[in-house]
Specification:
The structure is a single chain. The protein is of the alpha+beta class and about 90 residues long. It has one domain (about 5-80): Alpha-Beta Plaits, CATH 3.30.70. The protein is built from 4 helices and 6 strands. It has helices spanning about 5-10, 25-30, 35-40, 65-70; strands at about 10-15, 20, 45-50, 50-55, 75, 85. The strands form 3 sheets. The chain has a two-stranded antiparallel ribbon. A hairpin with a 2-residue loop joins β3 and β4.
């Protein structure tokens, strides 16, 4: 099973408020390797015109961004109650 098939089993109820916050955007601007664009399985982080865009509605709530950022610059928390990831089975 490839990643696209696995992601198909996930649905989300998106909140209006992001549960992913950059502590300091300037830290990200100075980051050379930009690992957040690599370790997130849902491609939540994307660089566009020297700015980091966060598509929080894609988040799988795995927490990899919380531990993968070498500067610990991403504040990650679970979405508010009733929002976030829902897994489909079968």
């Amino acid at each position: 099973m490839n990643i696209e098939d696995k992601l198909y089993t996930v649905t989300t109820k998106t909140d209006e408020e992001s549960h992913l916050v950059l502590k300091d955007p300037l830290v990200c601007a100075d980051c050379e390797r930009k690992p957040c664009t690599i370790f997130c399985p849902a491609e939540t982080y994307k660089w566009e015109d020297d700015k980091l865009l966060i598509a929080f509605e894609n988040c799988l709530e795995c927490g990899s961004c919380k531990v993968g950022c070498p500067y610990l610059n991403i504040e990650w928390r679970y979405p508010r109650g009733g929002f976030g990831v829902r897994y489909k089975f079968g």
